[in-house]
Amino acid sequence: MSASRCIARVRPLLRWAMGNGHSALAVVALLCAPTVHAQTDSALTALVANYTGLYTRANFSEWTRLFGPGFTSASANRDGTLTVRTLTQFIDAQRQGFARAREMREELLDVRVNQQGRLASVWADFVFYYDGTPSKGKLALLAVSDSAGWRFHSLIFSYDQ
Fold first, then answer.
1. What are the angstrom distances between the C-alpha of 16 and each of 7, 19, 22, 24, 42?
2. What is the pLDDT, as a whole number, of residue 161?
């Protein structure tokens, strides 16, 4: 859920908290934070946070290290076709996007992480911003932990109609 939608839903609680000397920021952080299961490995939690946190022009080379060597992405296109990219193709597409855009970023909402040993799936709604224009969609990331730590193995996503 977006921060503005969350704030609108908890507005009565915010009024009560501020009227009783409590921090509104703490209330928003507690009630509006993305959900990540409590049993999730802290390194996996960091990987998920870095997926959007490092997705900037300045941190791009660090962001690319989140993906394993066999990584693939697949996007379901509006015309019913599927675009599949290797790691190199995926990274090149992001690099080109940053080169063309004044602003490019992504926000994950309603994040759900399911860790089963050294395997994990991450499901989320997302908003992708390109030069201020938001596009909403859904994604799923698969992650695996090996001797190098947690890395993403694959991504599937689709934009809402």
1. 13, 5, 8, 9, 33
2. 80
DSSP secondary structure string, 133-153?
Answer: EEEEEEEEEEEEEETTEEEEE
Q: Which residue has the tokens 């290797």?
A: 86
The pTM of this model reads: 0.75
Domain boundaries, the chain: 1-33, 34-159
Instruction: Give the 3-state secondary structure of 55-116.
Output: CCCCCHHHHHHHEEEEEEEEEECCCCCEEEEEHHHHHHHHHHHHHHCCCEEEEEEEEEEEEE
Q: Mean pLDDT lowest for which of 18-32, 51-65, 101-115?
A: 18-32
Is CATH 3.10.450.50 what the domain over 34-159 is classified as, yes or no? yes
Q: For the segment 17-34, what is each residue's pLDDT rounded down to a tens digit?
A: 445 454 443 334 434 544
Round to whole Å and give the CA distance between 66 and 73: 13
